[in-house]
Specification:
about 35% helix; 4 strands; 4-stranded antiparallel β-sheet; elongated; alpha+beta
Length: about 100
């Protein structure tokens, strides 16, 4: 019969593998729905009016730098819970860096 220590060890491994899988999914999944939520949070009148300059994707958060009327804002979107749930976006006080234009 398995001891409590063996069961606890296996449970820890399962939790770590599950959290790693969820984090990887958050990074490689389609970001279009989250970007749409970010544009809604920034009150973009249309997709063409808001230019995405940069983005950073982490397992627990996605950060977008969006320009609206030549003013850059940073929008941070994170899942409702640590790694799962519906994304919620908020506009921060951070200023976005100017986009690098190709020559």
């Amino acid at each position: 019969m398995a001891s409590a220590r063996d069961i606890a060890g296996k449970l820890v491994v399962v939790v770590i593998l599950g959290a790693s899988g969820l984090g990887l999914y958050n990074i490689v999944s389609d970001m279009a729905p989250v970007l749409k939520l970010a544009r809604i949070a920034l009150a973009c009148p249309s997709e063409q009016a808001c230019q995405l300059s940069r983005y950073d994707r982490r397992p627990w958060e996605q950060r977008f730098e969006i320009f609206l009327n030549r003013r850059g804002k940073v929008v941070r979107c994170s899942p409702q819970y640590l790694l799962v749930g519906a994304y919620q976006c908020r506009v921060t006080d951070e200023q976005a860096a100017a986009p690098v234009l190709a020559r």
